[in-house]
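Note to self: the last two entries modelled the partners one at a time, which told us nothing about the interface. This time every component goes in together.
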Amino acid sequence: MQTLQVLVALAIAPLFSAWLQMLRALLQNRRPAGLGQGYRDLRRLFHKEAFLPEDSSWLFRFSPYILFGTKVMASTLVPILAVDLPLAPAADVIALVGLLAVARIFQVLAAMDTGTPFASLGAHREMLVSALAEPALLSAFFIASLLAGSTSLSTIVLHAQEGLFSLHPSMVFAAAAFFLVLLVENSRIPVDNPATHLELTMIHEAMLLEYSGRHLALLEWGAQLKLLLYVTIGIALFFPWGIADQFAPMAILLAGLALLIKLFLAAPILALVETLLAKKRLFRVPEFAATAFLFGVIGLLTHFMLGS
Amino acid sequence: MNALLPLQMALGAVALGPLASLGSLLPRLHPSWLRYTSLMTSTLMSLLWLLSGALGLILVAAPAPNLAVGGIPLWQFRLDPLSAFFLVVLGVVGTASSLHAVGYFRQLGRTGLRRVLIPLPLFLSAMALLLLADNAYTFLVAWEGMALSSSYLILAQTQTIQARHAAYLYLLVAHLGALCLLAAFALLCHGNPLAGNDFSALTHEVLAPGLAQAVLLLTLLGFGAKLGMAPLHVWLPEAHPAAPSPVSALMSAAMLPMALYGLLRIDWQILPPEGVSWGLVWLALGLLTAGFGVLFSTLQRDLKRLLAYSSMENMGLILVALGLARLFVAEGSPTLAALALSAGLFQTLNHALFKGLLFLGSGSVFHSTGTVDMGRLGALIRSMPQTTLLMLIGCLAIAGLPPLNGFASEWMLLQAFLLAPQMASGTLQAILPLTAAGVVLVLALASFAIIKAFGLSFLGQPRSIYTAHEAGLWERFAMAFLALGCIFLGLFPGLAIHAISAVNVLLLPGNSLGIQQPWRLTPISPERASYVPGWFLIGIAVAILLTFLLVWWRFGRPLRRVPVWSCGFRGARTARMQDSPAGFSQSLLRIFQPIHHGRIQPDTASKELRVELADPFWVGLYEPLQRLALALSRQALRLQHGKISSYLLYAFLTLVVLLVLVR
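The predicted structure of the combined assembly is written out below.
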């Protein structure tokens, strides 16, 4: 069951990204590359030769595996298909945020390891942005867990499925904060442009500049998986219908179907945001992340004030 | 077993300290002999404290027996779980620092060694004595001994103007703090701290409400000065970098917690936490200290100074946890109070492990390269691979990443905040979420600071020319000891919580968290929250290994080393194209400009931009005080103009006034 969920997540991550790219292309009057493009890109990268920059250390070499491994681990914790998975008691939302922080910090360290100017630019920007986004993410989670009376993701999702906090005002702030964090952490427009190679504005891509071949493939796949994880966490928190609460084959199948439909519907929102907004100047990015944090804090305050 | 045995063992170790100091005075002892014997004695003392602390935590005899020596003044000692816990902290840091010092001071001659080896064992002994003290007199003697010996240690390595200034400032603040404590004890003991009432006797005395408030205020000032609590923190970022690294490790990881011990002993055990207001004061000051410390630590250029500010941040977080626990007591939810208190104490132990490790590591870096200026370092991962790995563990632990120990205690603190809404009071409901948000912001910025420190010093290209070498065996051994501690407590946090529960029982009578399994944390119930770091580690390790093997098996081809691509830049790549320390945190400098008033100044000599920070407390509080003191002394100068007749007049007038008043 646990492995099934991981495999499903790994399999549909490139598909979701490709679908997002396709929608963006359509919205921008370009001809889309098709749904298989994500897989084709990964395949191509895996087969290419991988280079290591001179005088980079083991941190640079093994970081792709560490990053990919932590994200795979994260996908075992998130209720993508079902709640109460065997590994679920091992970690709650706070530990999940910690796990994603492990991935980010190794990425930053690997970037600094190369000692190139662009990589260190990307590294300190990533640390800055995440220093503001991580509190926002945590406060969004705090609101959900205060409502559910638990920080365990399974309990929160079960609680949400019963429709107990569908209309709670603080949840609206949580959703807003979470959405902004999703944009920030997955380096989407208006914070960062996943398709850019304009050196001076890059954040996430700048850290990958020296990677090639299978290492780059792992990093790209990891980034796709992370986007998928964020979207599924958002779905699980705010639109939890259909996630299986037992391990019957039929329920899992239904959950998978529901997930696909929800992902299918979630992508247009993201694509629309990315098409309508322009990328912000880098100095405005902290303000963007701080707005997310502010939403989270207001949500927390609302929760405590309304005293439910 | 004899219930007094742990106490006797610890006291025996305390007595070894002065002996070791005297031993350093022996003439004609070869420097390396001197170094080994003295530091091995320190190690032995620390190990004995570790052992007696552990015994004290396990063999809880309530009430713990008391030992008295001498008549007037009377020395009284006791080893209860609270002392035992802090004795463990001292033992761990003391062991590692002494072992590290064996390697660190290997190049010193006899005179240089004596500067360190005379005060060092005294410092250790004074800290242990402080923990074992059971009356005001013993406590104050130990407190003073700790301040004096450590101020000598600050000057042990460098005697530059800055170092002297740091030591002077430290001594000044320490004595202001000690004065506050003396006054507090005088109030507690009805004007006679020598009376020989042990602490448990003081517990049963009922103080007038106003008096109790005064004691609470004075102790907060006195211990806060030692804790680095804003606005009494000014000595901390000066003193820690000036001291030799094993001493910095001791000061930061063991001496700062002594102030926490004092707060718990007097403001918690002797004056039980009642009422909401002091909890709120602790919470607010803790948050102020943590926020201030973390902000300044992100902006530093000097590695040790960055770590010093980070200590301030950690102490602030612990104070937040303790304040939260006080609030829970006042609100009548002792289980939650136990959770917050355990989080604070666990964080104290964790801070001792990782901050000790990082300060020792910074010492090895200094030894190897001759600098701790991050604008000069870089690429140490190639010349000091093992030190780098150990430092990486410390950095990941302090950045609060699972499955290491820093995460476990932060997790507990956040859990305590999330359980707060069960409390009734209305005002708290507005304050607590804001505090929780502040705490998570502090934690995120702390990882920014530490990644800056690690990335700039150990990765990339060297920013100046030096020939670095791997740290010596002793130094690596000491660091590995602490790093293993970080991993062990990270994987088995339940063990630490179990040990802390004895302290909970002492401070919150009859209340403790449920029995914890060693490998998992479930503070209230599994449905509420649980965290199993072991599974975490295994899960990550399996995922990484599988990925690696699968990728290698399907697509494995030999890797090729090539020049960096760097977006196709083909010019000469120099190390100065990397981020400088100021460059790394430039955005934060911009964002928090109103707080730190940092200015970017060109340094013509090194062709660099330097950041000059101004401590707002120094500018806004200490400088006006300084001006006031100078102005008052200038007025007092008018009385002195060297004429004997006027001096006789002063004497006569004083006599008249006294006669009128006293009669």
